[in-house]
Task: inverse folding
């Protein structure tokens, strides 16, 4: 490819909204162009990287007996009614009507389509297990698109669906996919990916793992044990909290006036947030009768994923003043409220002398005891893990990290097959719903994550396996006839030898060319200049290390074969 | 691939709505499954064919310096406002709102996105010419999806966009694309493709060619000269009509009562439709002031594409009785109508004694002369060519054929670049809008067209170049241990040698296996059975010819290498 004709100019400035390195460099180096909020065009260099990522993913999916298919982007509402997700998913699912006023949706995931493909064609246990996958465009109307390709609305995704006769068979296959994912991320150059336990979210199902790239710009919060390597998304992470002192106090009501927030109450009563019990109130979506009150220690935050899963419905934070509650004075004693689902977080266990609202304007109780005064039936885990809490497996201090979720795998069970009526003959003559797994990898997010992890102050540094081109052939002073001749000859020769070459044939300064080669992140640069011609050796520079290698033209191909390995 | 695990069952019956051979066989052989009207899932065998078609297209696009990109499926309204197509395209363009009430569209073609990609990055004539292409899902809300993959709403398409400094440069590149398309269709096995001149339709621009596969199930009408090979879509086809006798008659008004249609008038007056002039009336969309009346010979039909292009606006057929016209008695003499655009078709030239409405209830004129009584300023070409009319190039009798449009190429001019403000520095220092071309091929329609053309009464007959697998390894009586052993060994061996093998490992009857192999259309079948083992030779059958070849196992790979060429 001659850079003079390459579509996608190197730019001096990144878009104003670009803050992450991948967003800045992918924009500046001519890889991507924003078309709308969270919607991008992949210019030729990015499409080349994307294709290489896709090829690696295909190889690994095929290696675990995946069969590639293509599901539609646009699906009829009826399919999503069957699974119940037409109703249960919010605004991120795009719904629209066609010219005949039929309801359609834009696919954001394809469990329904996968079961539909099997309906009527998969009838017997003998046809199982199988896995089908696709690489297809998806649209999810994210409220907050951000960080370039990290969180977008339209994205290319590899999604795979496996079908099994038993949970055990699913679990065996799930391990294969897990290993396959580890290989994929390693091959595309994402070395810092870890797997973490996660919430199955809108997919349903019980077991789920995410593959997270640990990076400061990640928007997912990951809880990691540095001792035993247990890692979980904060949505499902557990910890042991053992810093309550179990010492009883004397309960009494005190006037706290305008003190409402934890900080104000602590300041007013000279207490620490760990000595206060706070209440967070929620409405239940689609249920006007009941409300939810979560009590937890003053220093803790509600983990809404966990709470939602306990309630079994979607919830939304809400003042419950029309239920007679007094904001800032809600407490877990003297609470008279019908139709409330009340949950006590495990952080409260062992708190026997704490502050809580008196459910009375301007008053709190002090010296309250969980065992003596509140007597909850049980404690539940509805709080977010904080740094320094103990690992539930080994007891070490937990760490909090940021991560980008670049892949996820789910054990779905029979949720979709039962709702959509996919049944098979079992060996014993009975009928059963196949057990499903589903497995996703975001292609664009992988691309951005690779960029994020492989860059320096000069620009991108692509790993060899996914680089858009391996070689940047840089003709410096190509107004010099000798330079031009050698450059053209080498470009033709290397291309004929199937090397992937981006040839800087522009008549412009050495500075621009060298800077562009670094910004674009091409792994190997070959410089041809009056000086290299005089010296009789070409200059090779390795982008990653800066190492320089000098080589005679007749030895070039051999040297490149040694360098370009992956 | 073991057929026992292949997703996509061979079915006895095609869907009730399937009438074309490709629709029937692709459904029955487990290639595609309908998800909604005009929306299909590609099951694994179809996805394999599709991928091979895509690979061939990519090779050919890269060979003419195409740069692959990926434009978004979902685009913001603003982009389509710039080109004016948000307004000008009808219900086939899907419009919807996102969660922030922004208007979005589903891409049905990507001229706007291509210009957007170039904006801000392409600035100088030195960067031109270039061509960018993508293979991406598109959605077009067709009113009448039909014939399986032939006319769908969601489809995968290769669309390409070239940018040039001059019309001449565009024309040179257009020829290259033309040749590239001929190579593509030949390589994927579509031998009966012809190129025809076409209307540029919603794309705009002046020169356009379609690539049409001539087949009875095609819904496009193509006019072909069997002598000089000129071929055109009926929308733009021209002909010479020379059967009017130029003999003058005597004009007189006659009572024709209830006779209104051409047939009734002819019967009433004992005339031939070629002796009658009929009127067809249209409203102009978006223009309430003017109406259109097209006069043409009674045996001819209006070519609305031509008429629309003359009027310069969209038109819709309409009774104009509120304009004072009398349905069935409209005629081209004594017509007093303000604000009417009146067109006379060339079929009227030389008619000097014809029948036409008297613009008076129950009356017609006979013996009317064009030159004496009507005196039109000019004749225009607004009628559809009929079989037997003369080729305007060589005078031979024209033929009317049906075709499936599988590709199209357009010279767009500066329509999009000027509207969207893409300007470049020209060599002389001036600024100019680049001249564009665009070039499409429907992947799924190609696939269906190949199936349509390559099948027999037993099923599909894939060309080697796009067959999902080259070899159907058919183990007959594989409950026999010897058969099973040899089949498994051969499957492993051939697969290791990179042959593409679909292995029928099912425990089922020979009849089912042989029938399935034929239905699925795999080019080469190898049968292993107790009989072939006894004979010491494997049985190879060529799907296309039925030819049988017997070969010893040790010579198999060599023989297959000879057979599998493309």
Result:
């Amino acid at each position: 490819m001659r850079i003079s004709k390459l579509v996608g100019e190197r730019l001096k400035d990144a878009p104003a909204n670009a803050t992450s390195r991948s967003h800045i460099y992918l924009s500046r180096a001519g890889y991507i162009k924003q078309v709308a909020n969270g919607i991008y065009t992949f210019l030729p260099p990015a499409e080349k990287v994307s294709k290489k990522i896709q090829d690696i993913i295909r190889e690994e999916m095929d290696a675990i007996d995946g069969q590639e298919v293509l599901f539609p982007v646009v699906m009829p509402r009826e399919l999503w009614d069957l699974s119940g997700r037409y109703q249960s998913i919010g605004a991120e699912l795009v719904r629209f009507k066609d010219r005949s006023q039929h309801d359609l949706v834009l696919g954001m995931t394809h469990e329904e389509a996968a079961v539909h493909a099997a309906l009527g064609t998969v009838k017997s246990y003998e046809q199982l297990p199988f896995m089908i996958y696709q690489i297809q465009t998806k649209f999810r109307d994210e409220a907050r698109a951000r960080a370039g390709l990290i969180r977008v609305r339209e994205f290319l995704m590899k999604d795979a669906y496996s079908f099994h006769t038993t949970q055990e068979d699913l679990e065996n296959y799930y391990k294969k996919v897990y290993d396959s994912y580890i290989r994929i991320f390693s091959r595309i150059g994402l070395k810092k990916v870890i797997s973490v336990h996660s919430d199955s979210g809108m997919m349903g199902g019980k077991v789920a793992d995410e593959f997270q790239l640990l990076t400061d710009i990640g928007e997912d919060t990951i809880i990691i044990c540095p001792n035993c390597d247990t890692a979980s998304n904060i949505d499902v992470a557990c910890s042991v909290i053992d810093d309550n002192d179990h010492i009883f106090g004397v309960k009494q009501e005190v006037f706290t006036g305008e003190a409402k927030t934890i900080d104000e109450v602590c300041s007013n009563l000279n207490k620490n947030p760990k000595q206060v019990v706070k209440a967070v109130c929620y409405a239940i979506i689609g249920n006007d009768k009941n409300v939810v009150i979560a009590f937890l220690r003053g220093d803790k935050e509600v983990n809404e994923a966990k709470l939602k899963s306990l309630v079994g419905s979607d919830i939304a934070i809400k003042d419950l003043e029309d239920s007679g509650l007094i904001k800032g004075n809600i407490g877990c004693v003297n609470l008279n409220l019908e139709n409330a689902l009340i949950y006590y977080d495990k952080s409260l266990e062992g708190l026997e002398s704490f502050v809580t609202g008196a459910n009375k304007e301007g008053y709190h109780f002090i010296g309250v005891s969980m065992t003596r005064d509140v007597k909850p039936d049980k404690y539940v885990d509805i709080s977010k893990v904080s740094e320094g809490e103990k690992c539930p497996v080994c007891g070490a201090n937990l760490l909090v990290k940021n991560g980008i979720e670049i892949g996820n795998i789910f054990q779905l069970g029979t949720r979709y097959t039962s709702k959509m009526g996919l049944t098979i003959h079992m060996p014993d003559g009975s009928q059963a719903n196949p057990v499903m797994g589903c497995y996703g990898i975001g292609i664009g997010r992988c691309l951005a994550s690779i960029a994020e992890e492989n860059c320096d102050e000069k620009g991108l540094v692509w790993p060899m396996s996914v680089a858009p081109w391996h070689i940047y052939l840089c003709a410096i002073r190509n107004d010099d006839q000798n330079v031009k001749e050698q450059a053209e000859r080498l470009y033709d020769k290397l291309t004929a030898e199937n090397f992937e070459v981006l040839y800087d044939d522009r008549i412009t300064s050495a500075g621009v060319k060298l800077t562009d080669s670094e910004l674009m992140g091409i792994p190997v640069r070959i410089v041809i200049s009056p000086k290299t011609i005089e010296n009789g050796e070409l200059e090779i520079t390795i982008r990653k290390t800066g190492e320089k290698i000098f080589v005679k033209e007749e030895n070039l191909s051999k040297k490149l074969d040694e360098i370009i390995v992956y």
Notes: Residues 17-238+400-451 of chain A form a domain with the BirA Bifunctional Protein; domain 2 fold (CATH 3.30.930.10). Chain A touches chain B through 68 residues (CB under 8 Å). The CA atoms of residues 157 and 546 of chain A lie 34 Å apart. Chain A is about 25% helix and 30% strand.
